[in-house]
Amino acid sequence: xxxxxxxxxxxxxxxxxxxxxxxxxxxxxxxxxxxxxxxxxxxxxxxxxxxxxxxxxxxxxxxxxxxxxxxxxxxxxxxxxxxxxxxxxxxxxxxxxxxxxxxxxxxxxxxxxxxxxxxxxxxxxxxxxxxxxxxxxxxxxxxxxxxxxxxxxxxxxxxxxxxxxxxxxxxxxxxxxxxxxxxxxxxxxxxxxxxxxxxxxxxxxxxxxxxxxxxxxxxxxxxxxxxxxxxxxxxxxxxxxxxxxxxxxxxxxxxxxxxxxxxxxxxx
Length: 268
Ligand SMILES: [Fe+2]
Fold this sequence. Notes:
Blueprint: H1 4-11, E1 13-16, H2 23-38, E2 47-54, E3 65-78, E4 82-91, E5 102-107, H3 108-112, H4 120-135, E6 142-147, H5 148-156, H6 179-188, H7 193-196, E7 198-200, E8 207-211, E9 215-220, E10 228-238, H8 240-251
Antiparallel strand pairs: 1-8, 2-10, 3-6, 3-9, 4-8, 4-10, 5-7, 5-9
Residues 69, 71, 217 line the site of fe (ii) ion.
């Protein structure tokens, strides 16, 4: 499969090793891929909703691990218009020095079909309940969740992570201290990250584009200031109906093919 567009479509991501060296040209290459995938006149027309240099050029190196997440989050219980991230592009400047961090990609279908789940109506009820106790800062704004671990424990109906609503000062994304503790968390939910993850050692001059709602992403290793350009293409001010549509695409991954839908859990 040599065609980048075909890879993005079938795998949910594409790693382009001979990307343009120049930042602007790399951006245009990512933009062209996303436009080709979605069509420039798609349902909402995708816009650039995020443009970051990570870590900032004048900042500090990142911590050694980033938990699995979705940029801009998944609108699990939408109540107001929000921007939804649809595709993320990562590019490392061609003249950047040594890179040690690795991007972790976890295709949702590969992960979530490892076990059974309850029916969708029950899933939605569980997300709504979890949002009230653990997720949303303001219930009037609905519940958007960025953490894959939180989505999994909400779906399983077994909340164990600290509540960002109740625990003052808890920072989203800090659910786990280490990669090992994150892996153990998923194992307790009968999910093996190792069996489904793809690791991308993105190097200088390379470009990675992935479907932000089909593939959760994270990092192992540390990034140096100015290492990574990140662009998020998404839907600006997506309405509630549209957010539900996008959410339901994510929820489709919870339906195990040919499964008897028996919910299997490891002991807590
Ligand atoms: Fe991210």
